[in-house]
Amino acid sequence: MTAPKRLPPWHEHFRLPSGRELLIRPIRPEDAGPIQGAFGLLGPEEIRHRFMYALKELTPEMAQRLTHPDPNTEFALVAAEALPPGEALVGAVARAALVSRTRDAEFAILVSHFIAGQGLGRHLMRKLAKWARSKKLDRLYGDVLDTNLPMLALAESLGFKRVRENDGSGLVRVVLDLNDGP
């Protein structure tokens, strides 16, 4: 009997409760086209929750920047169909970036409404926290619109604390202390 083929680091299969199987893996330059194409499938609220403002399209420059993270300071994962990069439909993107001259990283996450509510966002947030801990950081934080109740509830359930809200911006900063437990 042969041993199962091991996946490269940060790669894993994830089965949604619906039965659909996704591959979670680091983002690749080849993902730019599919991400740009899938942008049109996002609803206005999804776009506003992620980008904090209305956006009609994801420009080629934005897609290029998103799919070329700096390996020294950024980490980005996608949850995509188990097809080669460039062919796979991307259903979620999660990223974290080191904040210059701090021991903090800022996160951003977008899960398409087609697969939201099935545990993928929770799983991706745990992956971002694992990466941040591997970098010996103290905090992982994100700014969330106060109307994005699912994201605020998810962050709270994972141990994030609200540290700034009601300042008139409509944003809530959620912070995970990486020196506290899992």
- The residue fraction in helices comes out at 25-40%
Run of helices and strands: EEHHHEEEHEHEE
- Main sheet overview: 8 strands, mixed
**Strands in their spatial order, largest beta sheet:** 1-2-3-4-5-6-8-7
What is the overall number of helices? Answer: 5
Protein name: N-acetyltransferase
Domain N-acetyltransferase: 22-179
Description:
- There is one protein chain.
- This protein has 182 residues and is α+β, with helices and mostly antiparallel strands.
- The chain has 5 helices and 8 strands.
- Strands 1-2-3-4-5-6-8-7 form an 8-stranded mixed β-sheet, with helices on both faces.
- A hairpin with a 5-residue loop joins β4 and β5.
- α1 crosses α3.
- The radius of gyration is 16 Å and the shape is globular.
- The N and C termini lie far apart (36 Å).
- InterPro entries: Acyl_CoA_acyltransferase, GNAT_dom.
State the main characteristics.
182 residues, alpha+beta, 5 helices, 8 strands, N-acetyltransferase
